[in-house]
Amino acid sequence: MTDAFKVEIEGFSGPLELLCSLLESGELDAxxxxxxxxxxxxxxxxxxxGRTSLDAIAEFLILAAHLLLSKAKALIPPAGDVxxxxxxxEILPPTESLLPYRMAVDLLAKKFAERQRFFNRPPxxxxxxxxxxxxxxxxxxxxxxxxxxxxxxxCIEDELAWEGIPTPIPEEEQVEKRIAEVCSILEEKGELFxxxxxxxxxSRSHLVVTLLALLELCRLGRISLSQxxxxxxxxxxxx
Amino acid sequence: xxxxxxxxxxxxxxxxxxxxxxxxxxxxxxxxxxxxxxxPLGEVESAxxxxxxxxxxxxxxxxxxxxxxxQMATAPDLCEAVGGFQVNAExxxxxxxxxxxxxxxxxxxxxxxxxxxxxxxxRSDRVIDTLLxxxxxxxxxxxxxxxxxxxYRTTSLFLDLFGLNAxxxxxxxxxxxxxxxxxxxxxxxxx
Lengths: 239, 191
What we know:
The complex is a heterodimer.
Chain A: E1 6-9, E2 12-15, H1 16-24, H2 35-49, H3 54-75, H4 87-90, H5 99-115, H6 132-155, H7 172-189, E3 191-193, H8 194-198, H9 204-219, E4 223-227, E5 234-238
Antiparallel strand pairs in A: 1-2, 3-5, 4-5
Helix pairs in contact in A: 1-3, 6-9, 7-9
Chain B: H1 5-23, H2 30-37, H3 41-56, E1 61-66, E2 69-74, H4 79-85, H5 96-108, E3 111-112, H6 113-120, H7 125-134, E4 137-142, E5 150-154, H8 156-161, H9 185-188
Antiparallel strand pairs in B: 1-2, 3-5, 4-5
């Protein structure tokens, strides 16, 4: 049972709930906590106890999620901090092309300071809304990670992890061919879901080419993409 | 004297507007409010103006015109009291470099990173990433040229945080500022 599970790590001994509470309040530094160590300890605890319930595991997962959130917040600098090395640039005199913007910067700084004097209700987390631009960025990050992974795989053999991804980035021809296919299906059906387009062919390369084709069609204003809720299928319709 | 049915209706509209704006964490447009409440746009606009004047007369709250809509906020003269009370509230802090980058995007949108860097004269990838993370700018597709660079635009959060109703509220760029010394690149390169 989870109430008997105690975390024993350097600097803390006690129930996981208390640990999470101390991390959230900042009394303990979340960046120093090893989530893997705690999960392993819980796993061993389950093995030793020989019995558990779905409720107990669910409770542990919730607490583990809190712990991960605290750790992520501790590791990632807060959004408000825009203190970067650009500060060095500020002492440089502006170039001629930048000159007209310097007054705009002063104006923006003034308006920003004025607006900061007003407080309003903070936004609550709701259903996330994604725009096409977000997907572009996501794709860029995706390929960035893929490139890094490719560099790593030059040194380390990892056949299983990346099986199915084409070695080069999909060529334009592949995407153009997929655009034509998607348009043809849409003209026939009017509207469909991403799941329909991927049905029967679940390879990563097929998914990547399909996403790129959809993004291009979206950029050209030929289709619209929408999603009812988190994790629901993406609806595709002709514009 | 009893209020006329017309007054009752107006009073009811004002109360409803006040309640909706109190509940909303982000600015709401007049059109959205009119459409939701089923009142003509002009009547809603006029009621909002009156509500704004009402709050401006010594209340703890104020009604702002922001990012193309209306938003309820605390009165600016109470900023220290409210700021002290909201000890855990994260407030955005922007460096001059971030403001510079934002100004370039605001006046040239949609604009690419190479174009921003050409104007600034320095690499700006990190500051752009920060602005994206803060939600002050967003990508707006790709430019059709070699390398298909991402285009950036400011967001409605930018308008809200800078107290702007629309991007057109920004004044025209001034060509000259006599107080600032301009870099002469060729002079700097001299030994």
